[in-house]
Q: What sequence folds into this?
């Protein structure tokens, strides 16, 4: 009897069965039922986790040996506070920390620049010179911790500082570990901390990749972020497609410098978003992982399996959270965490339920941490690898995502590739239009959002809160910068800045001259100005008419 | 009716301001958008050059009071009387303060596009 029922729905669409049609955010239509016949021709039956093309995960047993890494974000205003935090974490057995930087550091302005007014130390640590790194990492054994630098526009300077500091303190940089976000192409689409024109910006990313591949081989110089692209309005297919096009642009640059794909690809990692339809996201990750493996093997001819791995942090989900009935965000985040785990992520981080409108409290940050821990320790999520593997629906959708992402990448090629599509504003225009349509969908009730347009109730307006601006700390930082400028060898500073300009004009890799400059305590602002004199600045394409 | 939408300072959050730009265009307004990282002086100059009827500042980094203070100063100096408003992460307690600094209205994140359009239409009637 049951069998007859399944057969009666086999291969039938919503229209055939007289139910309302369902479309995913990506535009794909979902059938009311899937059966064995939908995956008849799929290779998934023969595929094992840890084997190419890695649809089912990059490791044979995934979380059985070691669950995904839990990483929570934190920003500390001064190098001094950052140092205290490092000491605390190491004493508590942790080995990694993300460092966030303030906007002047991210955009290439020193603390005493008029453009930095009101922003010094506001959203992260301030870095003017190498001295700030030396304070932040004082008495820290760089062999024992891995530092993740959330930096893009000025990434080449901050990576140079990290390397310079390690060299000055006598570390063997060939063993130095760490990561930098350093994905400038996504900054032009979302987040906005670009400085130089698009082609020069990509050149600088490739400089860091080349330098690290040759001298700091254990360092991961780039984490490609689909996350911010999705948060800017891209759908899940575009999130993956644009991220892959970006990763390919950096890879092509690295190969053109004579680097072997197997010396670079395994150091590349990704950062993706996890909100939205549960099955759609899981298919996005599984299909995307398979496609990336094929790109690296078939197009770039990588020999090593590890080169083909889509290593990722799948987390956040800020775009799905609401200011209305904020406690609902705790529930949403638990589902998002489940999406991330069922997709075989390497690292997970969750937004705090209250961060849409206020500074997350210690309590709300603890709830995020416990959400992930409950899943690991009570839900059996780590017991078996890829538990949804073989599901008629998930496998069908995974196949469709692989194809859809590939097709979207072809569209970008038609726009003359990702670098041109970003420089002309083509991608920004289309994602911002989608963000508008999506927002209007919620505001007019076409897209259901619990607590926002359905199941609403009267609520008191949420009080938005900011850390009060610490003018004293900003003044101290400016004072410290003044002191450095008066005690450093200013003749050498000028020589170093001249070398950077010369190397930029000669189109050389800028890492060596920037490392030399930061060792003489050239400031971030001075180095950026020297580079701007040669490269110019990005002119944002404006598409509203 | 011409609206200038602007991003003062270093804050790069531009999803909201672009959503509003699309919404205003669909509602029949003419929109001039400055792009990111403009100083208040730049913004006021662009407003004068384009002869706009309303100026909107989008600020999400928490610097809205500082930047609005600067806005008042520059508007006064240039003797510009164009109505201006602020949108973004604006605490309810700061709205009065922003109005004292000369802002006509503040629209915190989560405001509906339709409400902003309605408000602009009332300005239109007054103008």
A:
């Amino acid at each position: 009897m049951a069998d007859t029922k399944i057969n009666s729905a086999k291969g039938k669409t919503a229209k055939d069965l007289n139910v309302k049609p369902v479309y995913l955010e990506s535009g794909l239509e979902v059938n009311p039922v899937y059966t064995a016949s939908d995956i008849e021709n799929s290779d998934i039956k023969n595929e094992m986790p840890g084997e190419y093309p890695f649809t089912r995960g990059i490791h044979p047993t995934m979380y059985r040996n070691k669950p995904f890494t839990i990483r929570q974000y934190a920003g500390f205003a001064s190098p001094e506070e950052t140092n205290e935090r490092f000491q605390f974490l190491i004493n508590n057995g942790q080995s990694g920390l993300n460092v966030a930087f303030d906007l002047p550091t991210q955009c290439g302005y020193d603390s005493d620049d008029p453009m930095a007014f009101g922003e010094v130390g506001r959203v992260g640590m301030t870095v003017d010179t190498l001295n700030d790194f030396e304070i932040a990492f004082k008495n820290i054994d760089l062999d024992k911790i891995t530092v993740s630098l959330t930096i893009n526009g000025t990434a080449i300077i901050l990576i140079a500082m990290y390397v310079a500091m390690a060299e000055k303190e006598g570390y063997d940089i060939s063993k130095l570990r760490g990561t930098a976000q350093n994905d400038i192409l996504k900054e032009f689409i979302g987040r906005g901390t670009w400085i130089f024109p698009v082609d020069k910006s990509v050149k600088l990313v490739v400089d860091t990749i080349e330098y690290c591949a040759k001298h700091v081989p254990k360092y991961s110089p780039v984490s490609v972020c689909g996350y911010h692209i999705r948060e800017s309005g891209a759908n899940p297919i575009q999130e993956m497609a644009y991220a892959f096009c970006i990763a390919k642009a950096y890879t092509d640059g690295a190969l053109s410098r004579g680097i072997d794909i197997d010396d670079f690809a395994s150091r590349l990692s990704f950062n993706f978003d996890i909100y939205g339809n549960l099955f759609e996201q899981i298919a996005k990750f599984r299909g995307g992982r398979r496609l990336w493996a094929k790109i690296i093997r078939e197009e770039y001819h990588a020999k090593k399996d590890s080169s083909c791995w889509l290593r990722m942090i799948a987390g956040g989900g800020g775009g799905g959270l609401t200011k209305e009935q904020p406690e609902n965000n705790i529930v949403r985040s638990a589902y998002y965490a489940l999406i991330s785990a069922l997709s075989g992520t390497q690292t997970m981080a969750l937004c705090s339920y209250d961060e849409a409108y206020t500074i997350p409290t210690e309590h709300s940050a603890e709830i995020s941490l416990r959400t992930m821990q409950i899943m690991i320790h009570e839900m059996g999520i780590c017991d078996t690898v890829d538990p949804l593997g073989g599901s008629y629906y998930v496998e069908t959708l995974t196949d469709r995502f692989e194809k859809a992402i590939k097709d979207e990448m072809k569209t970008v090629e038609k726009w003359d590739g990702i670098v041109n599509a970003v420089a002309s504003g083509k991608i920004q225009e289309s994602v911002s239009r989608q963000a508008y349509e999506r927002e209007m969908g919620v505001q007019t009730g076409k897209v259901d959002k619990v607590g926002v347009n359905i199941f609403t109730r009267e609520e008191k307006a949420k009080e938005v809160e900011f850390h009060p601006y610490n003018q004293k700390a900003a003044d101290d930082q400016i004072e410290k910068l003044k002191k450095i400028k008066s005690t450093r060898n200013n003749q050498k500073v000028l020589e170093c800045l001249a070398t950077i300009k010369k190397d930029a004009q000669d189109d050389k890799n800028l890492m060596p001259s920037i490392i030399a400059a930061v060792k003489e305590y050239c400031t971030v602002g001075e180095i950026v100005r020297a580079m701007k004199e040669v490269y110019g600045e990005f002119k944002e394409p404006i598409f509203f008419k | 009716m011409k609206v200038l939408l602007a991003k003062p300072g270093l804050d790069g959050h531009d999803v909201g301001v672009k959503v509003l730009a699309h919404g205003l265009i669909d509602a029949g307004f003419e929109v001039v958008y400055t792009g990111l990282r403009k100083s208040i002086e730049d913004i006021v100059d662009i407003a004068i050059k384009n002869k706009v009827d309303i100026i909107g500042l989008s600020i999400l980094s928490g610097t809205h009071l500082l930047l609005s203070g600067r806005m008042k100063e520059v508007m006064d100096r240039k003797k510009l009387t164009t109505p201006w408003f602020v949108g973004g992460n604006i605490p309810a307690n700061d709205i009065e303060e922003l109005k004292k600094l000369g802002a006509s209205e503040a629209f915190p994140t989560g405001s509906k596009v339709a409400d902003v359009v309605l408000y602009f239409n009332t300005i239109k009637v007054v103008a």
The CA atoms of residues 68 and 346 of chain A lie 5 Å apart. Residues 1-66+227-447 of chain A form a domain with the TIM Barrel fold (CATH 3.20.20.240). Chain A is about 45% helix and 5% strand.
